[in-house]
């Protein structure tokens, strides 16, 4: 794997100072919006930090977003400056993004300046794009402004607003346009230093794009003066062990990824315990979806026995975690270790009673400092209150279906709005996924509830290994595995083979979108999907008509 460039803290300070001077020269002031259509590279961090130092508001998405997805996010907030890349690399391919940048600028009239960062071409041609300058031209202009400034040796900070970021609310938005929200990320330092034991000599990595809140979580490692390891591209290119190669080469000590990646790594037969020197690795973080018991076993058996495997769960809306790891507590298979410090997290039943060792809604019963400040364009806070406080008046309901265990840990059983309800029995989809992941024949799956004859029936879609067919024997094995480990209610009425599972750009499966397609309802937020074409295979299925 090709090694990228290294940026020291001193160099970062100088670059942020320059970029902030450039933004000020463009008239950016506290409260203005600056957007990034960028890959996960150092220049994106520089632009974000420079924006925050002024007290302006930063919003970003990755360059694999389509035009509609970009408009859903940036169109709402009317940014004054847009940082964009000329292209990016993914899975061995070079993707040109200049046409999309041109379209974005033509559709969002508030953009006074487009700053293009060269990624695939050292000297991109910008002649046909209005209001565009290169990153180099922008910094040259900024340097000139700094050279005549009395404070040229210092970075001026707006301490009141410097921690404000604008993020896009993906919660409740699998099939609808997302709401933009303003949030402060006060909680991340606590999570880094206390829950992850992050120190200045650590090398922190998280596999994420700039369109996922975990990018903010990763970048905030700078507050602990740790070294950040950035990666952009496919995690399985040029081969499944690519990120493990990087972790070994860069001596990563805290490695963050998704539950799906860990499962895919196992199914690809990657065995780092035998092939790699991961002596520096002491913590493996997983989020995005619940981590299965089988994945816990795989990590300790085939990756490394002496590390802290911390499954974590929170939300884009809080840019933080409700439940996460603890390096001083034991790891119990299939469980998140503990609730977050300063987060009054409970599980409530339908009557609003706190329960233990019983499934229910994840709630936070007391205020917490990293709650979103407001929704953009929601001056009376009606949408804000409806999103979090309608289920239990005055109590924050996150929309996760979970359970506090006998070990004081937590199991997340899926999203509340995706909970299945056959025969009136609530079933979290993660309960089914945990069993399906045990089957070597199945590479991926997605489960929904289909309205059927006045009730709901469970439908499971599976992606099989190449060359395999979903015959009666395999269906019987899938059903028996689910029945044996759960209950008869969990057993799908229908099992259907598909070629792909639709996911968001951050890698989360979109059960609500699939359910909408199955029921003939519209899915309007397809630009938030990494593979929207996959939805077509769920439409008008003959197997679901009987």
Topology readout:
Layout: H1 9-25, E1 33-37, H2 42-54, E2 57-61, H3 67-77, E3 81-85, E4 87-90, E5 93-96, H4 98-107, E6 113-117, E7 132-134, H5 135-147, E8 164-169, E9 179-184, H6 188-195, E10 203-206, H7 213-219, E11 227-229, H8 242-249, E12 254-258, H9 259-267, H10 272-275, E13 283-287, H11 293-303, E14 308-311, E15 313-315, E16 320-324, E17 338-339, E18 345-348, E19 360-364, E20 374-375, H12 382-388, E21 396-404, E22 410-415, H13 429-436, E23 442-452, E24 455-464, H14 472-485, E25 494-497, H15 511-518
Parallel strand pairs: 1-2, 1-3, 3-6, 6-7, 10-11, 10-12, 12-13, 13-14, 24-25
Antiparallel strand pairs: 4-5, 8-9, 9-20, 15-16, 16-17, 18-19, 19-21, 21-22, 23-24
Helix pairs in contact: 1-2, 1-5, 3-4, 9-11
Please summarize what this structure is.
The protein has three domains: 154 residues, 3-Layer(aba) Sandwich (Rossmann fold), CATH 3.40.50; 233 residues, ANL, N-terminal domain (Rossmann fold, 3-Layer(aba) Sandwich), CATH 3.40.50.12780; 126 residues, ANL, C-terminal domain (GMP Synthetase, Chain A, domain 3). It is built from 15 helices and 25 strands.
What can you see in these coordinates?
- The protein has 546 residues and is of the alpha/beta class.
- The protein has three domains: 9-162, Rossmann fold (3-Layer(aba) Sandwich), CATH 3.40.50; 183-415, ANL, N-terminal domain (Rossmann fold); 419-544, 2-Layer Sandwich (GMP Synthetase, Chain A, domain 3).
- The protein contains 15 helices and 25 strands.
- The protein has helices at 9-25, 42-54, 67-77, 98-107, 135-147, 188-195, 213-219, 242-249, 259-267, 272-275, 293-303, 382-388, 429-436, 472-485, 511-518; strands at 33-37, 57-61, 81-85, 87-90, 93-96, 113-117, 132-134, 164-169, 179-184, 203-206, 227-229, 254-258, 283-287, 308-311, 313-315, 320-324, 338-339, 345-348, 360-364, 374-375, 396-404, 410-415, 442-452, 455-464, 494-497.
- The strands form seven sheets. Strands 2-1-3-6-7 form a five-stranded parallel beta sheet, with helices on both faces. A five-stranded parallel beta sheet has the order 11-10-12-13-14, with helices on both faces. A four-stranded antiparallel beta sheet has the order 18-19-21-22.
- Strand 4 and strand 5 (93-96) form a beta hairpin.
């Amino acid at each position: 794997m090709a090694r990228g460039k290294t940026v020291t803290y001193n160099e970062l300070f100088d670059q942020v100072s320059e970029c902030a001077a450039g933004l000020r020269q463009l008239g950016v002031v506290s409260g203005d919006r600056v957007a990034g259509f960028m890959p996960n590279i150092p220049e994106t961090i520089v632009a974000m930090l420079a924006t925050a130092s002024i007290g302006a508001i930063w919003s970003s998405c990755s360059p694999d977003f389509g035009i509609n997805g970009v408009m859903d996010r940036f169109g709402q907030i009317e940014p004054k400056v847009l940082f964009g890349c000329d292209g990016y690399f993914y899975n061995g391919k070079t993707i040109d993004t200049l046409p999309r940048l041109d379209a974005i600028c033509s559709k969002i009239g508030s953009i006074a300046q487009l700053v293009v960062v060269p990624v695939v071409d050292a000297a991109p041609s910008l002649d046909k794009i209005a209001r565009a300058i290169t990153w180099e031209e922008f910094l040259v202009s900024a340097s000139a402004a700094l050279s005549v400034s009395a404070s040229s040796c210092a970075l001026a900070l707006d301490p009141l607003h410097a921690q404000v970021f604008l993020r896009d609310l993906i919660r409740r938005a699998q099939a609808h346009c997302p709401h933009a929200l303003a949030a402060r990320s006060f909680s991340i330092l606590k999570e880094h230093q206390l829950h992850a034991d992050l120190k200045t000599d650590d090398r922190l990595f998280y596999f994420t794009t700039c369109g996922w809140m975990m990018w903010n979580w990763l970048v905030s490692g700078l507050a602990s003066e740790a070294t950040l390891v950035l990666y952009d591209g496919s995690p399985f290119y040029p081969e499944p062990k690519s990120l493990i190669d990087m972790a070994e080469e860069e001596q990563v000590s805290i490695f963050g990824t998704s539950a799906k990646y860990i499962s895919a790594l196992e199914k690809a037969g990657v065995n780092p315990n035998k092939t790699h020197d991961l002596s520096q690795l002491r913590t493996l973080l997983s989020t995005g979806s619940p981590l299965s018991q089988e994945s816990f076993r795989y990590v300790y058996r085939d990756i490394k026995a002496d590390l802290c495997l911390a499954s974590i769960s929170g939300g884009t809306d809080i840019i933080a975690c409700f439940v996460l790891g603890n390096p001083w507590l034991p790891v119990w298979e299939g469980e998140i270790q503990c609730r977050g410090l300063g987060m009054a997290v409970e599980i409530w039943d339908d009557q609003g009673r706190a329960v233990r060792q019983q499934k229910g809604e994840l709630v936070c019963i007391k205020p917490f400092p990293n709650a979103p400040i407001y929704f953009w364009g929601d001056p009376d806070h009606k949408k804000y209150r409806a999103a979090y406080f309608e289920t239990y008046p005055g109590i924050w309901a996150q929309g996760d279906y979970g359970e506090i265990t006998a070990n004081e840990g937590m199991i997340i059983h899926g999203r509340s709005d995706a909970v299945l309800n056959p025969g009136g029995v609530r079933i979290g989809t993660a309960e089914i996924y945990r069993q399906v992941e045990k089957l070597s024949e199945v590479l991926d799956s997605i489960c929904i509830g289909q309205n059927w004859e006045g009730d709901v029936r469970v439908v499971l879609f599976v992606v099989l290994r190449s060359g395999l067919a979903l015959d009666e024997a395999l269906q019987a094995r899938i059903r028996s595995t689910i029945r044996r480990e759960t209950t008869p209610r969990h057993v799908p009425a229908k099992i259907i083979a598909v070629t792909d599972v639709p996911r968001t750009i951050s890698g989360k499966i979109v059960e609500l979108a699939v359910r909408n397609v199955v029921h003939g309802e519209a899915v309007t937020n397809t630009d938030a999907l990494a593979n929207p074409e996959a939805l077509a295979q769920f439409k008008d299925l003959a197997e679901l008509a009987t």
